[in-house]
Every structure is written in structure tokens, then in C-alpha cells.
Design a protein that fits this description.
- The complex is a heterodimer of chains A (about 600) and B (about 230).
- Chain A is mainly alpha-helical.
- Helices cover about 75% and strands about 0% of the residues of chain A.
- The longest helix of chain A is centred in the first third of the chain and has 32 residues.
- The N and C termini of chain A lie far apart (about 70 Å).
- Chain B is of the alpha/beta class.
- Chain B has a single domain, classed as Rossmann fold, CATH 3.40.50.
- Chain B contains ten helices and ten strands.
- The model of chain B has no long low-confidence stretch (mean pLDDT about 95).
- The chains are: A mainly alpha (about 600), B alpha/beta (about 230).
- Chains A and B meet through helix 6 and helix 7 of A and helix 2 and helix 3 of B.
Chain lengths: ~600, ~230
């Protein structure tokens, strides 16, 4: 690498950092004040891109940028008023779920409005040429972006430190309740902050259109980049977001410059993992003050009564009888339901009783699926052995990733689990020779004696029910009680001799193993695996199931999994815009039942 | 001016206040006395709307405020100084004051940073100091000054003497008497009987969320039985 190419890569990195910073700063601001992690922030960016391309046609690029930014800001304010205001009191995870539902709705809206094709934006008039830097041409527009990022940083800094509004925002970031008791109307402050965050995202998207086409896939990729930046920089720190955006964008630019472009995905998440392990609160973040007025201990997880156990056994019996009554599609759907029930129960095992909010549980599901598939296809093992040994890949993955994850808590833990899932996904996605890359693996069929739908259904029923029973049994062992003690009061649990971290690690690994079982069962039921099985949306599916069912209930994940799998199947087959429908249903459920379905039903019956 | 009628409140399943009633008038310092966990802080938080009222009512100037959000209550001219100070540690002294600022209010003293710095000379020497870099006593001054910036007609003070050096405690007492002289209504929680005697006109003794005794500070001083039963440790 010559000096001039290093310089060019460095400048490329700076230009990339600017838009990344705009998105991450908005995300960070919104989190700081509202404590909501806005999963839909990438969707706001995407909207900014599409609106800008659309408006640039008649009005020209320079008009389209502010129009897109303002349009997205108005949309953001509307979302805050209509949706988020109703759920500020809800548990963190449900808020995330609601913003994920928005991702689905915005994606389908964009698809409906602008179609599935990528949309190319215009060049920026006045900055469409190139200048010569160190003997190489360098686009003028990139130089404009390099200057624009620090400009926005300066403007934000002035806004936050030199205006009354900014002072109130900083006060509310630190202690919302106290600001309220001093007469600060949080409602409009929150709306304003959300609109500002949306404006920054929209602006980032609009400014990106001369560099890359608007696509429907940009939302999740941008939001996971922004997560990384915000977490690396420190949640709520605008300066940290700027530093981290520079760091991440430079690393990416140099990976591409050195010819390792496939590494970019992995590298940024490795950076995040390293930063989080060394500085768990980010480069410029600070250890968060203990949450004020938080609910404290969760309600006890009551052991099922003999009647309830009887009812569950009866349910198993009934499920065993289904093949006698019906075949074909019902069995296929029920097999899916059983697989996802085990997946959801394994996720619930760490989320509810252990209090570890994982956003990347699909990693272990997918590792189990790929473990089984690879043992069969590449290892040449018999199917039965592959099915039994494959899940160990999920378990080992969880042992490895879990060691890092249990060192963190809350939002940071969620982001780190997401990062590891993304690493696993990108390895699988890019390792064509071994995993089949984006095409995945095919020809993963059960052994002949299990090849009928009925036989495989029984195998799935036995393994899923067995897995669920084992996990539930563990919850009522001393191990399970100690886990809950560690969740409700880590310090006190430590003080009475419980190794909280060790137990959480064990729980994480166990949950990964059983997610792997679900994954392996899934692989053989479909005959193929694709990288989708460990993607972010799959992780979110699991979250939706658990949260639908109610996180502090025992059997909730079962009903959540059944309802979600059925809903997805029914809707996806019949409706073009099924994502929006699912998003809408999830939103309605979150608004109507902030404690989950089972929690709601229990409250009803208690009242 | 401030009136609590049969107020009940609590956290989760635990009820803390049981039909608690009391009142405080303008220019009067009323002290809530009681041991740890008696429900003193809970009373103030409930009045301020930080905790939901389960039953009973709170009236401020005759208007019911028990269903209002805290910011509306603050804007009616009721100030709240929390027990743990809750200074915005990332904000400077001036910025902390700015957060508390409200428009001047008829019938209430009008406070400016200059007037407050005259009342708390320590703060006047460090207007740009970050809240997190101040001593406990300075933070206690700041939290009161911040509340006064809202030009309140009544203030709720949660254990203003707690954790302060004796000389600062005396200063705090002088401050409260100065507020009283301005015509403010002051309702404060205390465990420190000596401090209560320095500033209080009337007292309510609270135990397990019930008012066990009400009377003037002078009467309480003579009533050994009540002091013995509800206050001594």
C-alpha cells in the first residue's frame, strides 16, 4: 500500500463517518432522553433516502435534502405522539419490539410507495466532479461530507449547551423524574428530541443518495452500524458517537482498501466486542447510575400446580394424537410450532429468570442448524448422529459468546448479543466454500425411517417437549432459584455466595444448546438451511414470541410461539404486505397488552 | 394553602400511607416527624405527583392536584426538594438553576440567580462548577436554589439537614426561616428533632403511615410521652 492510497482510504473513511455519525447521534440523543432504543432508526434513514431521491427528480438535489430531513422529522414526531408516548412506562423490551414493528411497517410502506427496485439518486450539483489528491482523483462530494459531519457535531453541541432547550434535554437525560418535578413538561421535550433524532437520520439518508442507491435492505444494516457506533462511543454521548463513527468508518475503509471487503461486517463487530469487554460503557460513556424507581424484584415465578402439569401433559397427549386425525399441512405447521416453542422457551430461560436480554438468540438456533447440516453434508455422519451432535455447535457458540455477554447487563448486553449474532451470520454468509454462503446448504433430509411427515413430527414432539421439560425443571432447581436471585439483586446474591456471573454463563450456554436443538430440528424439517436462520429478524421473531407470551410467566413462550408461527404462516401466505400486517398486529398487541398475553390473562383472572 | 385529606399511597403491593391528613398555611413551617420508614418521604412524593394517590385528595390553594403530573404541580407553584438532592451532575450550577426556572408568579417571591447567590454565597463563587464536583453541603444548597428558581409559593423539603456538617445545618435553618419570612409555605420532613425545633411552627408525628400526633412545636417539646413513643431511637 502506497502513501497515496493510504491517504485516499483515510479520506474515504472520513466521508463515511459523517453519515454514520448523523444516524448514530440521533439514536444516541433519543436513547439518552427517552431511554428507548429506536430499532426503527435505520428505517428513518431509509425513508430519508427514498424521499430525497423522489423529491430530487422535480426539485433538484439540494432542495431534496432539507425536504427529506424535515419530512422524516415530522414523521418521527408523529410516531412519538401516536405510539411511543403510550409505551414509555412499558418494559424496555416491549418498547424495542414496538420500534421493530415500525421497521416492518416502514419497509412495506416503502415497498408499496416506491417498489422493490433500487433507486439511484442524482449527483450533487456543484460537487459532482473530482479533485486530485496525492495524484489520485477524489470525489468533491466526499470532501463536502467530510466537512459536514463536524459541522453537525458543532451545531448539536451549540444546541445542547447554549440553549434552554438543550439544557433541559441534558437534565432530562440524567434524571427525567426530577426535571418533571421542576416543572419541565417531558411530553413535548420527548417529542422534540425524537423529531430531532429523526431529522438527523433523514438528513443522513438524504446526503447518502449521491453515494449509493436507496434500497429496501438498508434499514437493518444502517441500524446495526448505528448500534455499534453508539455502543462503542457510549450510549447518550454525542462526542462518543463522533469518535466511534470515525473509528468504525476508518476500519471499514481500510478493510475495503486492503481488499478484505468481506471482513468489514466481522471487523466492526469485533471492534465493538473488544471495546465492550475493555470499557463496558463505551469509549466516552459513563457507568449508568442505577435506575431510579425501577420496579425492583420481578414477581416470583410460581411453580406450576399439579393441575397445570396435568394440563400440559394432556396437551402433549393431544399433540401426539394429531397425526391420527390429520396429516399434510397441519403437521408441517405444528412441527414448526414445536420447533419455535423450544426456541422461544430457551430464549425465555435466559431473558425471564436470568434477566439476560438477548437480541441475538438466533445465532445459537442457526449454529445448531448449520452444525447438524454440516455434519451430515460435509462430515458424512448419519442423520441421527447429526441431529444429536449438531446442537452442540449452538451450545459451544453460546459458551464462547456467553463468556463476554454475561459481563454486561441491560441494553449493552442486548447490543453485544446482537453483535455476536451478526458475526455468526456474516461468517456463515461469506464462507461460500464451507457453509454455502448466501445459498445455504441443501439436501438435509431426515433418514429414511424418519422421512414421513408423521415420523418426523413425533421426533420433533419428543425432542421439543423433552427440551422444554428439562429447561423448566432447571428453573425450579437451586440453580434456577439462584438465577432469579442474581437477576433481582446481583449484589446480595453475590454476598450470600452465589457466583452470579458463572450461573448466568451456564444458563446462557444451556439456552444456546437448546436453541441449537431447535435449529437442528428445523434444518431437517425443511431439508435446507439458509443464513436467514441466524439473522437479526429471526432473533427478533424469538423476542416477539417470548414477549407476546409474557416474559415473567412460565408457559407464556409456548403460546407466544404458537400464535406467532401461526400468524406468520397465515399472513405470509395470503398477503403481499405481510410484514406490515405482522408489524401492525405486534404494535396493537404491545399497546393493548404491555405485560404480554399470559400476563394479561392472569391479571384478568386475578381481578 | 396545602391540604392533604385522608391520603393513601404506596409502592406496588405495599401500602405506605393510610388516610393521612394534614395542612400547612402560607408563612408557616410545618414539620413531619417520624422514624425511618414512617412514610414521611412518601408523603412528599405523593403530594408532588411522583407517586400515584390511591385514595384521598391533595389540595393546593383549594385546587385538587392529586391527579396532575408532577410538571403541572410544579407549574402551580409547588416546589419539591428531594432527599437525595438529585442534582444534575453533568450540568453547571447556572444550568441547574436554569432547569428550575419558571416565569415570575403573582403572590410569590421572584428569585433570580443573583438573589439566590446572596442567600447562598457559596454557590455565587462557583457558577460554572459542575454539579457532580460539589460537596454535599453545596449540593444541598443548589437543590434548594434550583427549586426556588421556579418561584414557588410553597416548598416541600425532604430532610434538608441530612448528612450535613453542623455549621451547614445551622445555615440551612437560617435559609428556611428566610423563606418563611418571604411568606412561603414550607412542609419539611425531619428526623433531627433539634433542627425541627430551630425552624418548625407546627409538627405532625407520623408512624406507619398514620398521623399519631399533631400540635405546635412548643407543645411537642413538652410532651415527653409522644417523643418517647414515636421519635426516640
Amino acid at each position: 500500500m502506497t502513501y497515496s492510497s493510504v491517504l485516499i482510504q483515510f479520506l474515504n473513511g472520513l466521508a463515511g463517518a459523517s453519515t454514520l455519525f448523523l444516524v448514530a447521534a440521533g439514536l444516541s440523543l433519543i436513547f439518552g432522553v427517552t431511554r428507548i432504543i429506536n430499532f426503527a432508526h435505520g428505517s428513518l434513514y431509509m425513508l430519508g433516502m427514498y424521499v430525497a431521491v423522489w423529491a430530487a427528480e422535480p426539485l433538484g438535489f439540494w432542495w431534496s435534502v432539507p425536504i427529506a430531513a424535515l419530512a422524516v422529522a415530522v414523521f418521527g414526531a408523529g410516531v412519538e405522539i401516536a405510539l411511543l408516548r403510550r409505551i414509555y412506562g412499558a418494559p424496555e423490551l416491549l418498547q424495542l419490539l414496538a420500534t421493530f414493528a415500525l421497521v416492518l411497517i416502514v419497509k412495506d410502506f416503502t415497498l408499496w410507495q416506491w417498489g422493490p427496485e433500487d433507486m439511484l439518486g442524482p449527483r450533487a450539483p456543484g460537487f459532482s466532479g473530482a479533485v486530485e489528491i496525492a495524484g489520485r482523483p477524489f470525489p468533491e462530494y466526499e470532501l463536502f461530507l467530510i466537512g459536514f459531519g463536524p459541522l453537525v457535531l458543532g451545531a448539536l453541541w451549540l444546541l445542547l449547551t447554549r440553549t434552554r432547550w438543550g439544557t433541559l434535554v441534558r437534565a432530562a437525560t440524567q434524571d427525567r423524574e426530577m426535571a418533571g418535578a421542576l416543572g419541565v413538561n417531558q411530553k413535548w421535550l420527548f417529542t422534540g428530541v425524537f423529531a430531532l433524532g429523526a431529522l438527523l437520520a433523514g438528513l443522513g439518508g438524504a446526503l447518502q443518495i449521491p453515494r449509493e442507491p436507496a434500497t429496501l435492505l438498508i434499514d437493518l444494516s444502517v441500524v446495526s452500524d448505528a448500534f455499534v457506533v453508539v455502543v462503542v462511543g457510549g450510549l447518550g454521548s454525542i462526542g462518543g458517537a463522533f469518535v466511534a463513527a470515525l473509528l468504525i468508518a476508518e476500519i471499514k475503509a481500510f478493510c475495503i482498501g486492503l481488499g478484505f471487503s468481506q471482513l468489514t461486517l466481522v471487523v466492526e463487530f469485533i471492534v465493538m466486542a473488544v471495546v465492550l469487554v475493555l470499557r463496558p460503557w463505551g469509549l466516552l460513556g459513563r457507568v449508568p447510575a442505577p435506575a431510579r424507581g425501577a420496579g425492583g424484584a420481578e414477581p416470583p415465578l410460581e411453580a406450576p400446580s399439579p393441575a397445570a402439569i396435568g394440563a400440559l401433559l394432556a396437551l402433549c397427549g393431544a399433540l401426539a394424537l394429531v397425526p391420527a386425525l390429520s396429516a399434510g399441512y397441519t403437521l408441517v405447521l405444528l412441527t414448526d410450532v414445536l420447533v419455535f416453542a423450544l426456541f422461544a422457551v430457551s430464549l425465555h430461560f435466559i431473558m425471564g429468570p436470568a434477566g439476560l436480554h438477548s437480541f441475538g438468540h438466533a445465532a445459537y438456533f442457526g449454529l445448531g442448524a448449520y452444525g447438524a447440516g454440516l455434519l451430515l453434508v460435509r462430515g458424512g455422519l448419519p442423520m441421527e448422529l447429526s441431529l444429536l451432535l449438531g446442537p452442540l455447535a449452538g451450545g459451544l457458540g453460546a459458551v464462547l459468546f456467553g463468556w463476554f455477554c454475561v459481563r454486561l447487563s441491560g441494553v449493552y448486553l442486548a447490543m453485544l448479543t446482537l453483535a455476536f449474532a451478526q458475526i455468526a451470520w456474516s461468517v456463515v454468509f461469506q464462507w461460500d466454500a464451507f457453509t454455502g454462503g448466501s445459498n445455504g446448504l441443501i439436501g438435509i433430509w431426515p433418514a429414511p425411517w424418519l422421512s414421513s411427515k408423521t415420523a418426523y413430527y413425533y421426533v420433533t414432539l419428543a425432542l421439543s417437549a423433552g427440551g422444554v421439560a428439562l429447561l423448566w425443571r432447571a428453573l425450579y432447581s437451586p440453580f434456577g432459584y439462584a438465577l432469579r436471585a442474581g437477576r433481582d439483586s446481583p449484589l446480595r446474591a453475590d454476598a450470600i455466595g452465589i457466583d452470579v456471573r458463572g450461573l448466568q454463563w451456564a444458563a446462557f450456554s444451556l439456552a444456546g444448546l437448546f436453541a441449537g436443538v431447535a435449529g437442528a430440528l428445523y434444518a431437517f424439517s425443511k431439508g435446507s438451511i439458509s443464513p436467514e436462520s441466524l439473522s437479526v429478524p429471526r432473533s427478533v421473531d424469538g423476542l416477539v414470541m417470548v414477549l407476546l407470551g409474557g416474559i415473567q410467566t412460565l408457559t407464556g413462550p409456548l403460546w407466544g410461539a404458537a400464535l406467532f408461527t401461526w400468524l406468520q404462516d397465515a399472513v405470509a401466505r395470503g398477503i403481499d404486505y405481510w410484514r406490515a400486517v405482522i408489524g401492525g398486529v405486534v404494535l396493537l398487541l404491545v399497546l393493548a397488552f404491555p405485560q404480554g398475553l399470559t400476563g394479561f390473562l392472569r391479571r384478568r383472572s386475578a381481578a | 394553602m396545602l391540604e392533604l385529606r385522608a391520603l393513601s399511597a404506596g409502592y406496588g403491593r405495599a401500602q405506605i400511607l393510610f388516610e393521612l391528613s394534614l395542612e400547612a398555611k402560607p408563612g408557616e413551617v410545618v414539620v413531619l416527624l417520624g422514624r425511618n420508614g414512617a412514610g414521611k418521604s412518601t408523603t412528599l412524593k405523593t403530594v408532588m405527583g411522583l407517586l400515584r394517590t390511591r385514595a384521598g385528595e391533595v389540595r393546593f390553594d383549594g385546587q385538587r392536584i392529586d391527579r396532575l403530573p408532577p410538571y403541572r404541580i410544579a407549574r402551580l407553584g409547588l416546589g419539591y426538594v428531594p432527599e437525595d438532592r438529585r442534582i444534575f451532575t453533568d450540568l453547571s450550577v447556572m444550568e441547574n438553576l436554569e432547569v428550575g426556572r419558571q416565569e415570575p408568579r403573582a403572590g410569590a417571591p421572584h428569585w433570580t440567580p443573583e438573589r439566590l447567590f446572596a442567600l447562598f454565597p457559596n454557590l455565587g463563587r462557583m457558577p460554572e462548577r459542575l454539579g457532580g464536583r460539589m460537596s454535599g453541603g453545596e449540593q444541598q444548597m443548589l437543590t434548594i436554589a434550583r427549586t426556588l428558581m421556579g418561584n414557588p409559593r410553597a416548598v416541600l423539603l425532604d430532610e434538608p439537614s441530612e448528612g450535613l456538617a453542623p455549621v451547614i445545618v445551622d445555615q440551612m435553618a437560617q435559609t428556611i426561616l428566610a423563606l418563611k419570612k418571604e411568606g412561603l409555605c414550607v412542609l419539611l420532613c425531619e428526623q433531627n428533632l433539634r433542627f425541627a425545633h430551630l425552624v418548625g411552627d407546627r409538627a405532625y408525628v407520623v408512624e406507619k403511615g398514620h398521623v399519631r400526633y399533631a400540635g405546635t412545636m412548643a407543645e411537642l417539646e413538652k410532651n415527653d410521652a409522644v417523643r418517647e413513643q414515636y421519635l426516640s431511637v
